[in-house]
Amino acid sequence: MDLSSISYNINLYLLPIITISGIIGNVLNLFIFLRPALHRSCSVYFLAASINGLVILTFGTFVQWLTILFPILNGTRTSLEYCRFRTFVLYVIYNLAPYFTACITIDRFFSSSINANIRRLSSHVRIAYIVIPVVIFITSMAYIHMTFRYTLIGTSCRPEPGFYTDFFPFFTAAYYFFAIFIVILFGLGTSYNIRARNRRVQPIMTTTTTITMATTERRRTRGDTQLLFMLFVHILCYAFLALPYHLVLIIAAIRPTLTANTIFRFVQQMTYITLNLSQAINFYIFTLTASMYRKELLNLLHRVNLRCWK
To answer: Cβ of 164: how many Cβ atoms within 10 Å?
Structure first.
């Protein structure tokens, strides 16, 4: 069996598994992050990321699997309008993923600051509801050129030949890596903030009121710590699964002749699978890494069970 057949079969059987498990996981994410115990501004960004993951898995992964199973359904081969529309939407939603992660990282940086004014930026949930549409708008505008610079070459939906063919892979890689730069920058800042807060001397609590306030603060801090750890694991998994796709994209732009190489095309297909997998595993890694998340999941399942058996 040659690599093309292996790639075809891997996509044929693996993509529906990724789609189904990812949709289930992201739907559960929506219910869990809406629970009062997780009501924080960063939870709104996690919600946005979960909704975006659902769009990717349905409009991206599932539709891609359908076109593999039934090639006649692939409208990008015959319609220029659909070619431009689908590629534009796909690049927007795939590139929203790292920027939502960047938003969560910035929020955790604000939340961990020793400066009360900066911390206040993380305490207002409405700020997240403003930031999310802004991020969507900026990303859409960044890729709007695709709606008139993509074209049909034979039966293939591609960038226009010439400068744009060389420009586009570097542009989309740069846009992705800028989000990664933000994540690293504010991730290091968050680490610094946490060390700075740990070095501060805590006052001795004596009254009942102050003890109650301290207990509440400790619970919130414990929740923030678990959310931070969830974010850390999410970043590691996302970088590991999504980075190869963008690296291959850059290599293909530098060495266009490689796209005709069977081994390179096989590797490219595998990186596409890992890119989609990065949108399907968040629920499962959150469940494994955070006891608070598992507790809210069990509470959700318990409530569903009670309603079903009333």
So the answer is: 16
pLDDT of 220 over the 80 cut: no
Instruction: Burial-class residue 126 by CB neighbours within 10 Å (0-12, 13-18, 19+).
Output: exposed
Q: Which residue has the tokens 């095309």?
A: 265
Q: Can you give the pTM of this predicted structure? A: 0.88
Strand locations in the chain (E): 150-153, 156-159
What separation in angstroms does the CA of 111 have from each of 123, 161, 191, 213, 253?
7, 47, 12, 18, 40
Residue with the bigger pLDDT between 161 and 290: it is 161
- What is the C-alpha to C-alpha distance for residues 183 and 87, in angstroms, rounded to an integer? 26
Q: How far is CA 150 from CA 10, 153, 155, in A?
A: 28, 9, 13
- Residue 251 three-state SS: helix
Rounded to whole angstroms, the Cα distance separating 42 from 147 reads 32
In sequence order, the β-bridge partners of residue 157 are 152
Separation of alpha carbons 146 and 172, rounded Å: 11
Strands 156-159 and 150-153: antiparallel
pLDDT at 51 over 90: yes
DSSP 310: -
Other Cβ atoms less than 10 A from the Cβ of 19: the count is 22
List the beta bridge partners of residue 150. Answer: 159
What is the Cα–Cα distance from 72 to 3, expressed in whole angstroms? 23
The terminus-to-terminus CA distance of the chain in angstroms comes to 55
The closest alpha carbon to 158, from 84, 234, 48, 54, belongs to 84
